[in-house]
Write a structure and sequence with these properties.
Layout: H1 2-7, E1 10-12, E2 15-17, E3 21-23, H2 32-40, E4 46-47, E5 64-67, E6 70-73, H3 82-88, E7 99-103, H4 108-118, E8 126-130, H5 146-159, E9 164-168, H6 174-185, E10 191-194, E11 198-202, E12 204-205, E13 210-211, E14 219-224, H7 228-241, E15 247-251, H8 257-266, E16 270-273, H9 275-280, H10 283-298
Helix pairs in contact: 4-5, 5-6, 6-7, 7-8, 8-10
The structure holds succinic acid.
């Protein structure tokens, strides 16, 4: 089995990953205990919850709700503050897998402060700059503001030598894909993670006649099966438009090995698991890894590159 697993390894930002999947910066990656559990699981990277300069409680509860085909959340970036994710770094070394820190400053100055400091920590391997949280009240998603995105990336590139990626919101219009790709291609980015949740959905409980979450009048980010077609489209489009040295990480509705394979066909170099991880806990990584490998074997693939980006379309 190890020989088979070896055939399907991947790499992101120059790091060899022992398999194709890891956690999204979303559920169950905020505390040291949760990061240790990821270290002990089959997640191939330990990725932290998006951090801010200071610790945050996040939005009032209820702020997460499981839905029949996914989830809705308005967590509001609860996290322990970036200094904790620095402090945890040496403790996570023993798991022999990369540790990535997700950064979501509430201002450009916050991002600069955090990234400058994170860049000096040898046990932090890379960071993912979150430009797409839809749930911070009064803070629009930076990824929908192209001028601001360009400015943030210009500044970040000046202050770090560590590999980094950006986590993007979903786009829905070809002009927006092209505009964003043009900006990303001009920066020294190692990976792009698409997509964050589809922002500001509203789920209504007809029995109680109430929205299912409290913050923002019930508006929150949709995840899970609802968003998979949008996530696949974003991966495919950015795979077409970005420089080939920028890896694409797919996230959105991956709950089975077959889902992971669909993202591979669209060009993803790895995938992240969010809603399914929230629902199943760390066992989800071994389950999806097993299903993914069995699926590739059944189709007689010998490497990920044989299928990567090879989605067939009608002539
Ligand atoms: C949140 O904490 O609100 C979710 C994280 C994100 O959407 O980036």
């Amino acid at each position: 089995m190890n020989e088979i697993k070896n055939k399907f390894k991947t790499s992101i930002a120059g790091f060899q990953l022992h398999n194709y999947l890891f956690n999204a910066s979303g559920p169950r990656c905020m505390t040291l205990e949760e990061l240790i559990a990821l270290g002990e699981s089959r997640s191939s990277v330990i990725l932290s919850k998006s951090c801010t300069l200071l610790p945050r409680e996040g939005n009032p509860e209820p702020r997460y709700f499981d839905l029949p085909l996914g989830s809705i959340n308005s967590m509001g970036l609860p996290n322990l503050g970036y200094k904790k994710y620095v402090e945890f770094a040496p403790l996570l070394r023993r798991y022999n897998k990369p540790y990535f820190v997700s950064v979501s400053g509430l201002s450009l100055a916050d991002n600069i402060t955090m990234i400058s400091e994170l860049s000096e920590v040898p046990e932090i391997d890379a960071f993912e700059l979150n430009l797409s949280c839809p749930n911070v009240i009064g803070k629009p998603q930076i990824g929908y503001d192209f001028e601001q995105t360009k400015q943030v990336l210009d500044e970040v590139m000046k202050i770090t030598k560590k590999p980094f990626g950006v986590k993007l919101p979903p786009y829905f219009d070809f002009v927006h894909f092209e505009e964003m790709a043009k900006i990303l291609n001009k920066h020294n980015i190692a990976f792009v993670t698409c997509i964050n949740s589809i922002g500001n959905g509203l789920f209504v409980d007809a029995d109680t006649e109430k929205a299912v979450i409290k913050p923002k009048g019930g508006f929150g980010g949709l995840g899970g099966e609802y968003v998979k077609p949008t996530a696949l489209a974003n991966v495919k489009k950015f795979y077409e438009l970005l420089r080939k040295d920028i890896a694409i990480i797919g996230v959105g509705g991956i709950a089975s090995g077959m889902d992971a394979f669909e993202f591979l066909l669209c060009g993803a170099s790895a995938v992240q698991i969010a809603t399914a991880y929230q629902k199943e806990g760390t066992a989800v990584f071994a389950r999806i890894e097993k299903e993914f490998i069995e699926f590739l074997e059944k189709k007689e693939y010998n490497s990920l590159s044989e299928a990567k980006g090879k989605l067939k379309i009608y002539e």
